[in-house]
Each structure stands twice: as C-alpha cells, then as structure tokens.
Amino acid sequence: MTTEIDFSKLNAYQRYKLMASLIVPRPIALVTSLGANGVVNAAPFSMFNMIGEDPPILMLSVNKLSDGHLKDTAANILLNKEFIVHMTDEPMAKKMHACGESLPNTVSELEHVGFLSTPANSVTPPRIVEAPVAFECVLHETLETQSRYVFIGRVIWLSVKKGLIDTEKWHVNLKDYKPIARFGASYYIKTNERFDMKKTIQIASTTQLTHCKHMSFNEIDTNAMHLAIQASQQALENGDMPFGATLVSKSGEVLIVDKNTQNSQKDCTAHAELVLIRNAQKKLPHDAMKGASIYASGEPCAMCTGAIFWAGIERIVYAASQDDILQFLGGDSLPIRSFDILSDSCPKVIVEGPLMRQAAVNVLQQFKT
C-alpha cells in the first residue's frame, strides 16, 4: 500500500522537505572559498556528491536566498572559479554545523568557530587543517535553476590525513575513515556502523544451514501447518489478527491448536503461539512441550520466540515469513528474525520454513483488504 503524491501540485518548499528528508543519507561538503574582500568563507552543504572520475568532477548545489542575493559561497565561486570541498568527520562535526550560521561577509567562519587553516596546494582558498579529506577544485561548469546554482567542480588536488590512503595500492583505509552524513530535518548520522554485503550474505547462509536442517517436510508437518492456517482464518473471522499455531509431540501427535485472540480478549500479548503455550501449560502434562514442534502460520515474533524457547519446544516451522507479515499487514514491527534470536541458543531450537507459505499469505491478504 502506497501514498501517491503529484509533485506538480506541491510548492517548492513542500517538495524540498520531502526530497531532503527521503534522499538520505547525504555526504556533507564543508566548502571554503575566498570573497572579493579577501575574507575566507566556510559553509556546509549536503546537496553534494561525486559525479565522475574522467574528468574527476563533483557537484555542489547552493540555494538562492529569498531576497535575490547570493550566498557567500555561490558569489565567491562565481567570482574566483575555485573552491575546496572538505569531508567532515565526527571530531569536527560541531564546528562544521556552526559554520552554517548567518554571519556578515566580513567575518570568516573559520575564525568564528575556531578551525585552523593552511595554504592550499593549487587554489587560493585555504584548506581546513582538521578535515580528514580536502578536494581542491576549479569550476568546471555551472548550472542555474530557478532556486539554485549547481556548481560542477573539477578536482585538481587531494589532501588527506596521513595513513588514510595507501598510495602504492591507491587503497583507502576505511576503518579509520568516519565521515558523518546529513539525514532528514536537523539530523545527522555517524558511519561507524557498517556491514560488508558479501560477509552478510555468507553469515546469513551459515545461520540458515545451522537452524534449518530438515527442510524436507513430511505429511505430519503438512497436516499440522494446515491446522495452524485454518486457525488463522478463524482468528481473522473473529476480528483478531490472522495467525494460528499447532503444537505437535515428538511422536507426531497433535496436542493443541490455538489462534490469536488479541482483539477479542483485549490482550496485546495474546499472539497465537503465546496463547497456545499458556493453554498447553493448563491442559497438558507439565513436560508435554519438551522436545515438541510448533507450527505457526506466521513466523513468530521476538516475544513468542522467547516463550517457545523457555517452554522447551525444540522446533519451529513457519508458513509466512516476517517479511510477508510486514508486507501484507504493515503497522508496528519488531523485525528480529527467529533465526537470529535462536542462533546461539542452548539447547538448540531448529527453525524451518516456509511451509505452505501461499496458503498463509492468502489469509494475510484477506486481513489487508
């Protein structure tokens, strides 16, 4: 389900708010330029990025002021056709942000916030000493729109902190490079929490192999899941969330079938699996759940997965995945997979699925419509 928005019916400010808060995160260019009066200007811009390497060009977008005047950065670049783009890391973040304050063009932001500067190698504006990366640029091309100047700068010199680049392999030491980025509204984000997609895929595959050993299902599995999905349909018809669960003993005997009763019982914790476990504790021998299997029409949430573990159930089989549930039901979510919760559990709990996914999804789709 989507919200459709016709941009032609929005004003410029409304379009800006949506685009600037959705096209994120954006790198931040802290730009130094030199005014006609010889004063060094420094200002941060997040409408900025790399364009290409041959020629080596980057883009900087500077908005026009409402009174028709130019920002100092734009005026200086148009005048001198050169500037320096600095990347901002965490230690210099506060000073970078302070450079965005409105000051007279007779006052340098560098002095105002306390940045140190040093002469550049190839352009007139100075370089900020604290910055881990500085691209010295000459103006390559200028684009002008109704609201902005878009400057395309050609990089002619690069200065980086010692140790950040291996100049034999031209390799960047990313573990020591922690730039910050702009998020929506007034928010910034850090970049020290990262993941390697190749390693992530490898880890996910290993987890699945560890916890999904028995992916060939038998008639007992199919019958138990059929009962769980039937219960999910009943829950839906009762006005509850469309989920059901079946408990099966080690010997393959169906012990109990239950369904979600969140709305009818006015109990936010009455998920199908938790209702089943509570009723099993009341109706069955105390050790009946030890070594049993639970069949859930939807992959159990974090709460239910924990309850399943503590009940002594050794196997979870699900039909619709958490991704399916989020896609078709939406709403609040706690997207922690059962695999992940139980990856280091002792004793081990096997998680398998999907089994009869389409049948479970058919019920979820009814709830959605």
Secondary structure blueprint with pairings:
Blueprint: H1 12-22, E1 26-27, E2 29-34, E3 40-45, E4 48-53, E5 56-63, H2 72-80, E6 82-87, H3 93-98, H4 109-113, E7 117-118, E8 127-128, E9 133-144, E10 148-160, E11 165-166, E12 171-172, E13 181-182, E14 188-189, H5 197-211, H6 219-237, E15 244-248, E16 254-259, H7 272-283, E17 293-298, H8 302-311, E18 315-320, H9 322-329, H10 338-341, E19 350-352, H11 357-368
Parallel strand pairs: 17-18, 18-19
Antiparallel strand pairs: 1-13, 2-3, 2-6, 4-5, 5-10, 6-9, 7-8, 9-10, 11-12, 13-14, 15-16, 15-17
Structure description:
The chain is of the alpha+beta class and 369 residues long. It has helices at 12-22, 72-80, 93-98, 109-113, 197-211, 219-237, 272-283, 302-311, 322-329, 338-341, 357-368; strands at 26-27, 29-34, 40-45, 48-53, 56-63, 82-87, 117-118, 127-128, 133-144, 148-160, 165-166, 171-172, 181-182, 188-189, 244-248, 254-259, 293-298, 315-320, 350-352. Helices cover 30% and strands 26% of the residues. Strands 3-2-6-9-10-5-4 form a 7-stranded antiparallel sheet, with helices on one face. Helix 6 (219-237) runs parallel beside helix 11 and helix 9 (322-329) runs parallel beside helix 11 (357-368). It is elongated, with a radius of gyration of 30 Å.
What percentage of amino acids are in beta strands?
25-35%
The overall pLDDT average reads: 90
Cα Rg = 30 Å
What topology, given as strand order, has the largest sheet?
Answer: 3-2-6-9-10-5-4
Query: How many strands, which pairing sense, and closed or not: the largest β-sheet?
Result: 7 strands, antiparallel
* Uncertain spans: 202-214
Tally of individual helices: 11
Distance between the termini: 10 Å
Estimated structural class: alpha+beta
Number of strands: 19
What level of helicity do the residues show? 25-40%
- What is the general shape? elongated
Query: What is the string of SSEs from the N terminus onward?
Result: HEEEEEHEHHEEEEEEEEHHEEHEHEHHEH
